[in-house]
Specification:
Elements: E1 2-8, E2 12-19, E3 34-39, E4 46-53, E5 56-63, H1 70-76, E6 94-99, E7 110-111, H2 114-122, H3 131-145, E8 149-154, H4 164-167, H5 173-177, H6 187-201, E9 209-215, E10 219-225, E11 228-232, H7 254-263, H8 267-276, H9 279-284, H10 290-298, H11 302-326, E12 331-335, H12 336-341, H13 343-350, H14 362-365, E13 372-373, E14 382-385, H15 390-403
Parallel strand pairs: 1-6, 6-8, 9-12, 12-14
Antiparallel strand pairs: 1-2, 2-3, 3-4, 4-5, 7-8, 9-10, 10-11, 13-14
Length: 404
């Protein structure tokens, strides 16, 4: 069985192709036959399509004026040239899509029907940077592959188990009834890491209290108990919660009123400020990349140090909030680009929790761990570094849907 996964971002399109036996789902992620990434940020009027397959890496320039042709061009590399891995596109059995926002309607992977596609489009105002790309991807597959089974995996689905008292905002209740509530994001990653943690610890997921720290350019924590999300830091949009690469995370909402009244900022100005110019990038003045921040600290850059200290302070504060929700902790998990690779972030995030019995083994932490426990032997709380596999999680659900 050939499963194609499309993972669309606000300015990118990551894709991969898995080959899985019809009747057997591997326990661990296999290497994809083919991977592709479309990046629209590298130049003003063009994008770059990078394809890897058969030990070959190929780069193709895309014209932004013909953006709708990008996905068909990407798919063509599956069947032509040095990156050819299948004979024809009709060899693809299922296509899975990561969809950022599914509202409260969808709680699991869902075959895409006209109704589902319409709902994804309806939710564009809640995810204007992502949901349009999801609809575009679905329609591109319809044009190229016809009636092939397409499956949507919603980032919000895992968080539908959050109790209303944790999901509702303290606004007049009629706004909750109109959909103003915490939805949560990164759900595919949080769910995958929870299941992987149970495997690593060799314990039933239903017995564990977990805090999963998804730390990338976007960051969120989720409190997971009995395999279910009880609380998460991102909210109505992916802007709430932790300080991130370019996003502010939670701030006093009156600041926005002040900026509009006293400095004449428009809604678009505020959106740019909070989502693209804040976080590590805005405070440091250097970069949204933690690696650049750490280099700035080595060079005694005050703002780089301030940005890092703020990042850690907010991370630890939100870990405390998740602890309060769980009423205990079996494992603290680090995942995504920063969580998996930034040794100092993990070290500082774990400081001060000794009273819980959480003790980091610094040698293990510095040894480039992957899917490993980096806690000391005498730690009563395990500390895991898990390589998140969103694409494989989507492929797994596609396989399940194809069996139904």
């Amino acid at each position: 069985m050939k499963i194609l996964v499309l993972n669309a971002g606000s300015s990118s399109q990551k894709s991969c192709l898995y080959s899985i036996e019809e009747n057997t789902l591997p326990n661990h992620p296999p290497n994809p036959l083919w991977t592709a990434n479309i990046d629209w940020t590298v130049a003003k009027n063009e994008g770059i399509l990078t394809v890897k397959a058969n030990g070959i890496k190929q780069e193709i320039t895309l014209d932004i004026a013909h953006k709708t042709q990008a996905i068909p061009k990407m798919l063509n590399t599956l069947i032509t040239g040095k990156t050819k891995v299948i004979e024809q596109l009709s060899d693809i059995n299922v296509v899975g899509h990561r969809v950022v926002h599914g509202g409260i309607k969808y709680t699991k992977a869902t075959p895409i029907t006209p109704e589902v596609k319409a709902k994804i489009a309806e939710l564009i105002p809640l995810a204007p940077s992502h949901n349009p790309a999801h609809v575009e991807g679905i329609e591109a597959i319809e044009k190229v592959l016809g009636n092939v089974l397409q499956v949507a995996m919603f980032d919000t689905a895992f968080h539908q188990s959050i109790p209303l008292e944790n999901a509702a905002y303290p606004l007049p209740f009629e706004w909750v009834e109109k959909g103003i509530r915490r939805y949560g994001f990164h759900g595919i990653s949080h769910q995958y890491c929870a299941n992987r943690a149970a495997e690593i610890l060799n314990q039933p997921l239903s017995s564990l209290k977990l805090i999963n720290c998804h730390l990338g350019n976007g960051c969120s924590l989720t409190a997971i108990k009995d395999g279910k999300s009880l609380d998460t830091t991102m909210g109505f949009t992916p802007l709430e919660g932790l300080m991130m690469g370019t996003r502010s995370g939670s701030i006093d909402p009156a600041i926005l009123i002040y900026l509009m009244r006293e400095h004449s900022l428009t809604p678009d100005d505020l959106n740019t400020l909070l989502n693209k110019e804040s976080g590590l990038k805005g405070v440091s003045g250097i970069s949204a990349d933690v690696r650049a921040i750490l280099q700035g600290i080595k060079e005694n850059n005050f703002r780089a140090q301030l940005a890092f200290d703020m990042y850690i302070h907010r991370l630890r504060s939100h870990i405390g909030a998740m602890l309060a929700t769980l009423g205990g902790l079996d494992a603290l998990i680090f995942t995504a680009g920063v969580g998996e690779n930034a040794v100092l972030v993990r070290e500082k995030a774990c400081e001060g929790w000794e009273f819980l019995g959480l003790k980091l083994d610094k040698t293990k932490n510095e040894s480039s761990p992957v899917d490993e426990d980096i806690a000391r032997e005498d730690s009563s709380v395990r500390i895991l570094v898990i390589h998140t596999e969103e694409d494989w999680a989507i492929a797994q659900q596609c396989w399940q849907c194809s069996q139904e």
